[in-house]
Amino acid sequence: MEAGGERFHQQSPIPENSPETEVALFRIRDRDSGDNGKMTCSIQDDLPFILKPSEENFYTLVTNGALDRESKAEYNVTITVTDLGTPRLKTEHNITVLVSDVNDNAPAFTQTSYTLWVRENNSPALHIGSVSATDTDASANAQVTYSLLPPPDPLLPLASLVSINPDNGHLFALTSLDYEALRAFEFRVGATDRGSPALSSQALVRVLVADANDNAPFVLYPLQNASAPCTELVPRAAEPGYLVTKVVAVDGDAGQNAWLSYQLLKATEPGLFGVWAHNGEVRTARLLSERDAPKQRLVVLVKDNGEPPLSASVTLHVLLVDGFSQPYLPPPEAEAAAAAPADPLTVYLVVALASVSSLFLFSVLVFVAVRLCRRGGAGSAGRCLVPEGHFPGHLVDVSGTGTLSQSYQYEVCLMGGPGTNEFKF
Fold this sequence. Notes:
The protein is mainly beta. About 10% of the residues lie in helices and about 35% in strands. It is built from three helices and 27 strands. The protein has helices at about 160, 330-340, 345-380, and strands at about 5-10, 15, 20-25, 40, 50-55, 60-65, 75-85, 90-100, 110, 115-120, 130, 135, 145-150, 170, 185-195, 200-210, 220, 230-235, 245, 250, 260-265, 275, 280-285, 295-305, 310-320, 410-415, 420-425. The strands form nine sheets. The chain has a four-stranded antiparallel beta sheet with strand order 1-3-6-5, with no helix packed on it. This is Cadherin domain-containing protein. InterPro entries: Cadherin-like_dom, Cadherin-like_sf, Cadherin_C, Cadherin_CS, Protocadherin/Cadherin-CA.
C-alpha cells in the first residue's frame, strides 16, 4: 500500500462457519529508503481476523476462527500502515467484510409445548390456536413451514380431527368434538426451514375439550321404562323423616354441569313427603293419618347446574299400608290397564273356545241320553243273568265295613235284538 496508490483484492461476502478463510489480499509500499521505507501493518485487536505477511510486502487478511453471521453479520476493518521514519508517517484503509448466511440454525418454537382449549360441539373449521417458530438464519434458510407429525397413538384419527396451516401455524378443528367421547388428545407439530439441507424441530400440542351442558340427567332408579312401575310401601305408623326411597340419577357431563339437585314437583298430598335436594332421598315430612289416601303419586324433578340447566322427571308410586303384611294393591295405572277393554283378538278367541266347549258338552249329553233310552228298552224285554238266592256266608265281609272280601265280576245283559250291547262291571 502506498500513499497515492493501492493494490487491493477483497472477497465478499465471507461464508460463516469457515475458519481461516481469505478475506482480502493487498500489497504495501513506501518510496522512502532506509528506516523511512520500512513499514508495519496492523488491524484492530478486537476483530476475528489476522494479517499474514508474505514476501514482497504482500499481506493476506484471513479469518481467525469461524464467523457467526447470527452474532455479527458485518465487520469494518481498518488496515493501518506505519513507517519507521522520524516522524512516523502512516496511512489507513477501511474495508467492510460481509458474512454470508449458512443454514446452521433449525427453527425454534416459541414454546416447547402448547395447551389449547376448544369447547365441545364446536363448528367445523374452527380456529383453536396457533404455534409459532422462528429461524435466526437469513433468506430461504429462515423460511419456516409447519406440518402435523404422526401421532404416538396409531388409533388416534388425527387427520380427521385437526389441520395446520403450513405458512402461519394456525390450527382450525376439522370436526365437532364431543367431550363425552374424547376429552383430550395430543400430537406433535414440526417446523422445517427451506435451507439445504433443511433443518427442523418439533413441539408438543395438547388439545383439551371443554365440557358443554349437552346431557340431561338420567334416572337410574326407579326405572321409568319398566312395564310394571315400582311401588314403595310405607307403614302408616312411620315417624316423620322415614326413608321412603331414594332417587338415583347421573349426568354424562362434567364439573358443575354434572352437579344434580332434586325437588318435589307434584304430590297427591302436599306436605306429606319431602325430597332432600342433594341426595334425592324421599322421606316423610309428618305423621301419617287415616285421612291420607292409601295411594300416593309423587313427581320428582332432577336438575343439573349447567347453563342453561337441563332436567328430567321421575314418577314415584307410594302405597300406605297398616303393616307390611297387608296385601299388595296395584298402582292406579295397573288398575286402569285391567279395566280397559280387551283386545278384539282376545275376545274372538274366548268366544270360539266357549262355542267349542258348549258343542262338546251337548254331544256328550245326547250320547248319554241315547244309551239310557236303549238300556231302559232292553230291561223290559230281556232277562238278567244274575243268580238268585243269598250270597254264601264266606263271601260276606264280616268286618262290618259293607264290602266283599273277594272280587267278583257281574254281567248284565240287555236283551233287545241285534243292537243289544253287553256291559261288564
